[in-house]
């Protein structure tokens, strides 16, 4: 259920709202932790891509 909820949250294109991700990262279910890490990394890539070249 937690894994499903995390995926639903991600599909809603939530960005920069890491609270659900950080909570999921601490979950006892390793699948939930792994998915949270994937989503955190995806968010970081999106943030880097959105920065102007000068800031990178």
Can you count the helices? 3
Instruction: Please report the distance between the alpha carbons of the first and last residues.
Output: 38 Å
Morphology: elongated
Strand content: under 5%
| Quaternary structure annotation | single chain
**Biggest sheet, open or closed, and with what strands and sense?**
none
Structural class of the secondary elements? mainly alpha
- Share of residues in helices: 55-70%
Rounded to the nearest angstrom, the radius of gyration is 12 Å
How many strands in all? 0
Give me the secondary-structure topology:
Layout: H1 2-11, H2 19-25, H3 30-50
Helix pairs in contact: 1-3, 2-3
Structure commentary:
With 56 residues, this protein is an all-alpha fold. The protein has one domain (2-50). It contains three helices and no strands. The protein has helices spanning 2-11, 19-25, 30-50. Helix 1 (2-11) runs parallel beside helix 3 (30-50) and helix 2 runs antiparallel to helix 3 (30-50). It is elongated. The N and C termini lie far apart (38 Å).
Brief account:
The chain is mostly helical and 56 residues long.
Question: Which features characterize this protein?
Answer:
mainly alpha; 56 residues
């Amino acid at each position: 259920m937690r894994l499903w909820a995390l995926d639903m949250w991600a599909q809603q294109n939530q960005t920069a709202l890491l609270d659900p991700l950080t909570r999921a990262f601490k979950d006892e279910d390793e699948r939930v932790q792994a998915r949270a890490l994937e989503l955190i990394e995806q968010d970081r890539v999106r943030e880097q891509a959105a920065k102007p070249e000068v800031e990178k």
